[in-house]
Amino acid sequence: MKIVAEEHWVEKGPVKLYVYRKHDAERSGKPVLFLVHGSTFSSRGTYDLMVNGRGDYSAMEYFAGLGYDVWTMDHEGYGYSDRTDSASGIMVGVADLQAAIPLVLEKSGRRSVMMFGESSGAIKAGAYANAEPDSIERLMLHAHTHHGRDAPEMERRRGIIDQLRASPRRPFGKAQVDNVFNRDKSGQTDPSIIKALEDFEMKFGNTIPAGTYVDMAVNLPLVDPTKITCPACISRPDHDGNSTEEELYEFFAELASREKQFHLLRGLPHGGAMVGHQRHRMWYVMHAFFGAPKAPEGH
Description:
Layout: E1 3-12, E2 15-24, E3 32-36, H1 43-47, H2 59-65, E4 69-73, H3 90-108, E5 113-118, H4 120-131, E6 136-142, H5 152-159, H6 161-165, E7 169-171, H7 174-182, H8 191-202, E8 207-209, H9 211-218, E9 232-239, H10 245-254, E10 260-269, H11 279-290
Parallel strand pairs: 3-4, 3-5, 5-6, 6-9, 9-10
Antiparallel strand pairs: 1-2, 2-4, 7-8
Helix pairs in contact: 3-4, 5-9, 7-8
């Protein structure tokens, strides 16, 4: 096995977007897994964090080792991708995916991808599946928000909506990193891991786009479950102020897919699924879904 990393760039009009890949160069015909990041952290901070050289914090490294061709990208205004005047809301993220996925299909030789998104990344992934259903083989939405009614964090954001709308970018620093991991249930992640993520992300500056926060507060729903026909999985953290269980059960019931799963993950907070101490449980659920054999044609 030879895990290699590749950096790519795609253009969305005048905007250059960073696309990143990890895969086993000695294996061909690998299934493609595309990971969509959320509102606060960039793609590699979320999915390829290296802590003192330890690969076991990298979801990309883990899934590449299982035989997936793993891809991700920095959305407009995040990470290595171009900074612009855009607030980089959900539908901007969908346009980013529409720019990147053709490159992924070309390089991998596949006709479709399996897609995972968490938090606002789940909304982007679901909205992309609505827009481009033929390119999605399997879809997993983690820490998803459907409409956000009665969800504590969405109520908080609605209360500061004028502040969120005042600038296309919001402050980013240690306080915002700590909030992601400790807002819904504190003490669930090793502080040294939080510090490593903070150090990685701060090199991109002290602001991040505000658009997904605005969208999640006042513009949901942006995903139509009745138009998702591919195999789908909804996974909900035990402690998640971004949604209610009731709204996700409603979303799940309305999914058009005839192959669908719903997972409740005990003890898991909204943030930190990929780098927290329960990351291997999260990865197990993902692999069980993405690695499932296909149903026979015509059934």
